[in-house]
Automatic annotation (TrEMBL):
Identification of the protein by name: Putative proline/betaine transporter
MF annotations from Gene Ontology: symporter activity
Keywords, in A-Z order: Cell membrane, Membrane, Symport, Transmembrane, Transmembrane helix, Transport
Subcellular localization, as worded in the UniProt entry: Cell membrane
């Protein structure tokens, strides 16, 4: 033990992985993962209701599509357990490669999956879609924590929050790439061609990005923090058991620290896309149904709930503009979290999220201009709250269970925050006959829970990250 300990470098020495390699490997991986995740989210609103649930009315088909979208969030905690176990047992590098491969293969297969419109696939197609969506969630459950550790465990002293913003930046970049591709396809293809085959292109194209990501990650060297765990014989046989028995308090706090971030993000993306592109009048809804080859019945008219009626391509551009602000303020959040501390900064941002929830009715009531303002404000808050998460969640746990602890907290939060967000928001909107009041209050309530968790936590900025082995 003494001889191995003597070879350990001080925590402020230059990391084994170069700065450029760390930044690119953490960024490219999460960009690919989130790109894959977002193309499903977009397709679940735009085409999957008609392709995989053709025998349901529009509202029911959309709800079923969102339900499959939520399957991934159920899988994510399982993914965090599986990938976290191996990340804490054998290392970060191999685990990150495995998570990327799993996501890439599942996404590609969605792109070549027959739809329920194909004879003989009416029930089989949705069932396979559920399975592939489950695999996507499994992969993302292990990806985020590994990428966060790759960045923060290789960060120079007093730069963890700054380095931690790079894997977080993969979220807006992946979103922008995915939606730019959908916008391009929407512009060059007719609605019939897009529905027939165009939607498959983003899924199949992900294979190219996965190859690039694998090439970069295979060149990584294990982090100094994990190497210390190996050198000092501190590897835990059952990381999950250790987290739940010895680290239950940071696990609980971490889960709710992330809660409002998840609710905000999926309301700003999936729900706003549904609300924004839903017809504003019955006549507009009838025209859209006929363009998609669907009969608009009297029952559909009776169930109709108005949205904003914004053209799909226009609203995708609005989302892309909003996500640009998401990316900018993700970068801004790193230096702020270093200067003011993670806890103090996030407390202030969470108050902002709670107040933002109260603006939904007046802003959406102002039409396309109000919707654009709402998207910009929401994504600014999203960048400020999401950016520091790659620093604060891993800092809650010692190095020998850090992968598992941060991954489980992050993904348990996805189950209670992200998974139901689109479904609950859609139900609240429908129940209120088109009003977004309850949706905004839902977001504000989530912010209150996160504020309480942050208030009960302690500042982690000055923790001895490298030498906190466990």
């Amino acid at each position: 033990m003494s001889s191995s300990s003597s070879t350990v470098e001080p925590s402020d020495t230059k990391p084994l992985n170069s700065r450029g390699r760390v930044i690119f490997a953490s960024l490219i991986g999460t960009t690919i993962e989130f790109y894959d995740f977002y193309i499903y989210a977009t397709a679940s609103v735009l085409v999957f209701p008609a392709l995989f649930f053709p025998n349901s009315d529009p509202t029911s088909a959309l709800l079923q599509s969102f339900a499959i979208f939520g399957v991934a969030f159920v899988a994510r905690p399982l993914g965090s357990i599986i990938f976290g176990h191996f990340g804490d047992r054998i290392g970060r590098k191999g685990t990150l490669v495995a998570s990327l491969l799993t996501m890439g293969i599942a996404t590609f297969l969605i792109g070549v999956l027959p739809t329920a419109l194909v004879p003989g696939w009416t029930f089989l197609a949705p069932a396979i879609l559920v399975l592939l969506r489950f695999l996507q969630g499994l992969a993302l459950g292990g990806e985020w924590s590994g990428a966060a550790l790759l960045a923060t465990e290789n960060a120079p002293k007093n730069k963890r929050a700054v380095y931690g913003t790079f894997p977080q930046l993969g979220a807006p970049i992946g979103f922008i790439i995915a939606n730019l591709l959908f916008v391009f396809l929407n512009e060059v293809l007719s609605p019939e061609a897009f529905l027939a085959w165009g939607w498959r292109v983003p899924f199949i194209a992900s294979a190219v990005l996965v190859i690039v990501g694998l090439y970069v990650r295979l060149k990584l060297i294990e982090s100094h923090s994990f190497q210390q765990v190996l050198d000092k014989g501190k590897v835990v046989k059952l990381p999950l058991a250790s987290v739940f028995t010895r680290q239950w308090r940071p696990l609980l706090l971490g889960t709710f620290i992330m809660f409002a971030t998840y609710v905000l993000f999926y309301l700003m993306t999936s729900f706003t896309l549904s609300f924004g592109t839903t017809a504003a009048t019955v006549d507009q809804a009838r025209t859209a149904a006929e363009a998609a080859g669907r009969t608009f019945t009297a029952e559909d008219a009776a169930k109709f709930v108005p949205g904003l009626g914004i053209d799909r391509g226009t609203f995708l551009w609005m989302l892309i503009i909003g996500v640009v602000f998401f990316g900018i303020f993700t970068i801004v959040s790193g230096p702020l979290a270093e200067k003011f501390g993670r806890r103090r900064m996030l407390l202030a941002v969470t108050v902002g999220i709670a107040l933002f929830g109260l603006t939904w009715v007046p802003l959406f009531g102002a039409g396309i201009v109000g919707a654009m303002i709402l998207l910009i404000l929401g994504f600014i808050l999203m960048g400020l709250t999401f950016g520091p998460m790659a620093a604060i969640l891993p800092e809650l746990f010692p190095a020998n269970v850090r992968y598992t602890g941060s991954a489980v907290a992050y993904n348990l939060s996805s189950v209670i925050g992200a998974a139901p967000a689109s479904f609950v928001a859609l139900a609240l909107w429908k129940a209120a006959d088109g009003s977004t009041l309850m949706v905004g209050l839902y977001l504000s309530a989530a912010a209150v829970l996160t504020f309480i968790a942050l208030w009960l936590s302690r500042e982690t900025r000055d923790h001895d990250y490298d030498n906190n082995i466990g």
